[in-house]
Every structure is written in structure tokens, then in C-alpha cells.
Amino acid sequence: MSALNAFHESLPSRSRRVPYSGRTSNILSGACINLQRTILLPLIELELERIASKQPLKAIDLERYQTQEPLPDSGKPSTAEDRERLADSLQKAYISYTYLDARAQNLNLLDKWGKNAWLIGNWGLENELKALERDLAETKRLIDVLTVARRRQQEDVAAEMKGLEEAWKQGVGRTLETEIAVEQLRREVLEEMRARGA
């Protein structure tokens, strides 16, 4: 799927056209560039320092593949923090188990059948990955079709939506005017009653 044809909208919206202002766009793009400089330069400097000191890149958290420390046996978790810690440990244990199980299967295939069975297993995994990628591409295509249809529907009813919005604004304005008039009338009545009572 071409990146040029992809739509990246997920929420239904009716966008309004903003009048172009060259000055505004220059200010915003300058602010964006300055923001990128302030954020990216320190990160690049840190990465260059890491490379100069010959420290390894810690891109993958290897701790989740290692055995987990058991939690103290204190019965049922009583607080939200205990439940969160238990859920985190359970998730890490599941990740570790899945990784170790797949690794054990691969090593058993390698020991039992040799390199070819292991390669065939990898081929099967590649086919499964390709099928998932096809499903993902099809889903993205359907999202793009839906987005185009939604946009067309919005353009078809744009005039009606604008008319309804204007009518709503007028209705709200009239309601506010009525409430203000009622409040003024109430004050006048109170003042008249005070004047008669005095």
C-alpha cells in the first residue's frame, strides 16, 4: 500500500477551513524547528557520549526474559498497588514463559531433526507473519475506504450541517437574551415593590 494514499484519521470530524496566513505558518514552523532543536540536540549528544564511552545500546529490556523474583506470600493482594505489582509480575512471567517455550521447541527441533527442521519451522513462522501483514494491509485499506466514504458524506451534508449549526447558535443566543430579559424584568419588579413598600 502506498504511503501517499494512506489516510490517518480515526475520529469522525468535520474540519473547518482555516484562512491561510503566511506569517502564522512561519511563526509555527519556526517554533516547531526550535522545539526540535531543544529536544533532539541533547538526545543526540547523549547518544554520541554513549558511543564514545563504548557502552552497549540498551534498546531491548532483557530483564523480562529472565526469571522473576517470587513475591512474598502474604495471602491475597489487599491494595491496588499489590494487585498492580502482581499483574506486572504475571505479565512478565507469561512473556518469559512464551519466550523460553518457543526457544525450547526450536532447540528440540534442532537436536532431533537437524538444521532443516529448524529452517522449516522458521519458514512457517515467516508465512504466519506474512499472513498477519496481509491482514493488516487489508484492514488499513478498509479504513482508508471508510475514511474516504465518511469524508464524502461530510462534504455532501456540509451545507446542512452549517445551517443547523447556525440555527443552534441563534437558538442559544435567543435563550440567553430571554434569560437576560427575564432577569431585568425581575429586578424591575423588585425595585417597584420596594418603591411601593417604602
UniProtKB/TrEMBL annotation:
Annotated compartments: Nucleus
Key words, A-Z: Coiled coil, mRNA processing, mRNA splicing, Nucleus, Spliceosome
Domain of life: Eukaryota
Claim: Coiled coil is one of the keywords in the record: yes
PANTHER family from the UniProt entry: BCAS2 PROTEIN, PRE-MRNA-SPLICING FACTOR SPF27
Region (Disordered): 63-82
Organism: Colletotrichum liriopes
Coiled coil, from the record: 122-149
Gene Ontology CC, one term: Prp19 complex
Official protein name in the record: Pre-mRNA-splicing factor SPF27
